[in-house]
Amino acid sequence: MQSLFSLCAVIYLMIYAFEGVIRYGLYNIGASNAILLRDGLIIGPLLLLLAAQATRTRVHPAFFAFGAIVGLHGLVSTLNFHNLFPAIYGAVLLLNVLFGFIAAKALVLPSRRVVLLWGVVWVVSVVAVVLDKFFVTFPWTGLETHIGGISVDVSRGWDISDGFAKRAAGFTRSSISAAMLLPTIALIIALRMRSYLLRTLMLFMTVAAVFMTTQKGAVAAIAAVALILATPGFMRYRLLCWAALGFAILDVALPIFTSGLLVDSNGGVFSLASFGMRITDTWPDAWRWISDNNLFPFGVGLGGIGGAQRFYAADFFNPSDNLFIFLYANFGVLSFVYLGWALWQAWHQPPETQAIAITPLAILVFNLGYGAALSMLEDQVSQLFFGASVGMLWMLRQMAAAKPWANPYWVAPNLRYGPAITYRPARSVPAADAP
Which long-range contacts (CB under 8 A, 24 or more apart) does 348-357 make? Predict the structure, then answer.
């Protein structure tokens, strides 16, 4: 079962890394909807594991948590909009988080062969971003496909003629995808390197490549993680914990305390114009939508904001562009509980697991940092690795306490007991000598 999860995760991430190329090929043969088949790589293994564990009446607790969250918040959105689609859409997004939570080790601490594969993907992706930025306009740039009646842009052109300001996506579907993929892969590889110089060089090149995508939130997040990883080893765990807490507070505080501010939203790609647009337009509109459709304390409900809106409230579509707004819209006040639980797993690692926890914690910090400017849980790689980072931290605590779910794939053997065996010695056993 573990091999199946690992294989499906690798294939899924390879599709993500070359999604621009794949969508272009599918578009040319009139099969754009076929991209949805990749979801089978997530759903299939989860169903098989659930069935195998259910037959032994020992199911991983993550399945129960997933069912409870989808059931509660899906019911809220269904009652709110009298439509099942938002709940279904939101549940599909959370399936990636569940898969990542269970396949945490395969994603965060993969085998040596998989690390080498990711090394090749990282090099190819960096080269593709550079080519896309300065030298080549790929044929899929600006391509618009329709899936389920919804328009999907592939490497949107943005009508930018200045090469330096161009949003480079490389072989991925968008610049956001490239800005998510490169740092995640780099953290997995770099933290396996023994050479401090090579590790620092790789992280520096990653920051430069992400800079070319013009995703400023991702640049700031990966730069912060890279600086922490440049510190002495004994400092990294605690610094990453503080960074996770700090970024989580920033995610919550930014859209709340900037409400009502008047900020200039004019400027170039590398200015603070996009941040100003979030403050003056995106975040206030998101809070207005939540206020108008809120079932306090449960928020709008599962699928209550973001991509799902394009199917049931297209005129009010809001990308949220902030992790906390996205969480609060979907989960209401319970978003504090879910986010707090993730931080608890990070902060309360036993001393013997803190060194291993550096990689998942670094990935979690990057996601929280980028979450200040993006609704991370609508991106497939972020969904997988948000779940994987928290899942790995939880699993390490299970291992330290010698608890059974240190192995998430464990299935109790189906033992068949025969008739009782009675042993009668051939001769009497002498009693012990009396004192």
Answer: 348/397, 349/237, 349/393, 349/396, 349/397, 349/400, 350/396, 350/397, 350/400, 350/401, 352/400, 353/396, 353/397, 353/399, 353/400, 354/237, 355/233, 355/237, 356/109, 356/396, 357/237, 357/392, 357/393, 357/396
* 40 vs 52: CA distance, rounded Å: 18
Exposed/middle/buried for residue 428 (C-beta within 10 Å: 0-12, 13-18, 19+): exposed
pLDDT of residue 137: 86
Rounded Cα distance between 155 and 152, Å, is 10
Residue 214 φ then ψ, to 5°: 70, 15
Q: For position 263, what pLDDT does the model report?
A: 72
CA angle 67, 283, 228 (to 5 degrees): 75
Distance, CA of 80 to CA of 82 (rounded, Å): 6
How buried is residue 146: exposed, middle or buried, by Cβ count under 10 Å (0-12/13-18/19+)? exposed
Record the tokens describing residue 5, joined without a space.
């999860």
Please tell me the distance from the alpha carbon of residue 167 to that of residue 157, in angstroms, as a whole number.
8
At residue 150, the 3 state secondary structure works out as strand
Instruction: Tokens for 372, please give them.
Output: 């200040």
Q: Would you state the pLDDT for residue 167? A: 85
In this structure, the chain runs to a length of 435
Give the type of residue at 221. A
Tokens of 154: 């592939």
Of the CA atoms within 13 Å of residue 400, those in its CB half-sphere come to 17
- H helices of 230-293, in order, are 233-257, 273-277, 283-293
Buried b (16+ CB within 10 A) or exposed e, 400-410: eeeeebeebbe
With contact defined as beta carbons under 8 Å apart, do 98 and 9 qualify?
Answer: no
Q: Which element (helix H / strand E) includes 127?
A: helix 112-130
d(CA 302, CA 7): 30
**Of the candidates 255, 248, 317, the residue with the CA atom closest to the CA atom of residue 283:** 255
pLDDT at 248: 97
Those residues whose C-beta lies under 8 Å from the C-beta of residue 414, and which sit 6 or more positions away, are 55, 56
pLDDT at 207: 96
Residues of the chain with pLDDT under 70: 146-164, 264-272, 411-435
d(CA 358, CA 187) in angstroms, rounded, equals 10
Do residues 141 and 157 touch, judged by C-beta distance below 8 A?
A: yes
What residues contact residue 94 under an 8 Å CB cut-off, 6+ apart? Answer: 66, 69, 70, 302, 383
> Whole-model pTM above 0.85?
yes
